[in-house]
Design brief:
Length: 181
């Protein structure tokens, strides 16, 4: 979020940081765009799962429905965390001086480490459990070829989602390391 007043304020301030205000803004903007990409991919997956749920909705609770609920809820929870995290950071950017924002970024990315290394693996595990619960139903109701397609596409889509999340985590960790130097 580039703002002329904010840039002018930051440039006027004398600081001993090795990272310039423009560099901090550029890196924060790049990281924010990565968060938007992650949110978009996860949202598309949730939409597909919800459409599929309505298409195959059953009136009773069984492991198939439980699997869909687990998959959808884990991704929805992760999306909510990403939006909250993103909104909180943007709100703080407007009201802080450079030094204060620099310290805030350090704290923000340390909090993100908790999300990345604790909450995200739990969400991924819940998603995988949900997918696993769906497999017996897929095997029973679909042909072997389509069942194999579901397994392959499920594993590939999960791999893509995980790789995007891991890539985002790596970028955030690098940024935190740069802030700490």
């Amino acid at each position: 979020m580039e703002n002329d007043n904010l840039n002018r304020l930051w440039e006027v301030q004398a600081n001993g940081s090795l990272i310039s205000p423009k560099e901090i803004i550029r890196k924060a903007k790049k990281q924010r765009n990565g968060q938007y990409t992650s949110i978009t991919v996860m949202t598309l997956t949730v939409v597909i799962l919800i459409i599929y749920t309505f298409y195959c909705a059953f009136n009773q609770l069984n492991t198939f429905n439980l699997g869909l609920i687990l998959m959808t809820s884990s991704l929805t929870f992760r999306i909510i965390i990403e939006f909250y995290s993103l909104y909180r950071k943007e709100k703080q950017l407007i009201s802080m001086t450079q030094k204060t924002y620099y310290a805030y970024l350090k704290k923000y990315y340390k909090t993100r480490q908790i999300i990345n290394y604790a909450i995200t693996p739990i969400c991924i595990t819940v998603y995988i459990i949900g997918f696993y619960l769906l497999l017996p139903y897929f095997k029973e109701y679909f042909s072997q070829t389509f069942y194999n397609y579901i397994i392959i596409s499920g594993v590939l889509s999960l791999t893509v989602i995980i790789s995007i999340i891991v890539h985002s985590i790596i970028k955030e960790q690098r940024f935190l390391n740069q802030l700490n130097t």
